[in-house]
Write a structure and sequence with these properties.
The protein has 233 residues and is of the alpha+beta class. The protein is built from eight helices and eleven strands.
Length: 233
Amino acid sequence: MELITYLARMDLFDGLTQDELLQLNHVTPLEIRSKGSMVVSPYMSPKVLYIVKSGKVRLYKLTEEGKELTLDILGAGHLFGELSSFHTSADMFAVTMEDSIICEIDVQQFRKIVSEKPMLALKYIELVTARLKEVEELLGYMAYGSVRQRLLFLLHKLAIKFTSNSQMMHEWVTLEIELTHQELASMTGSIRETVTPIINQLVSEGILRKEGIRKPYSIHLNRLQTALSVVSL
């Protein structure tokens, strides 16, 4: 898919004229990033707004203990970079979880379009506000919740974000992202030895299931929501 067509299909850029999309197209280079590539870190000075065209990107920060605290996982169509300055400190990292194609939009060009398009500015604010709410909720679980609570919250968030609309109509939904116990542990500020028995418990409770070693998890969304509501903050 050509980049201009891709941008036109994003909710954020809905309403832009063909000429405005062409302007973005000229200043939006594509870059292929292999799995594990660092896209943003506190040691870089990002002057661009990033868009995930394909793949997955994990946003995280380091706790005082040196553990990785996942702030968000982004898929195709999601934005990060300059956006982060609205809701996180300068110590944010962004790393690809799989081979990904990342678009870069010049911040000055984007701000110019935003200043000329009030509706685009409102959509941008809504996006930032929603991300802020998610991060605040996550930090609440990290501060006061058990590892089980953090894991349930994370799985629920991933189920909503990485499940197709057609799948949401079924009893079981399959995550469109593969995660190891170690990755789940890192995302919840825990260790694999703690997360593994909790995963096994969720499987025995009929909340999770996995068809094979290299297969993604399937989630019984209703049971997950019920378990999450029992331990909600």
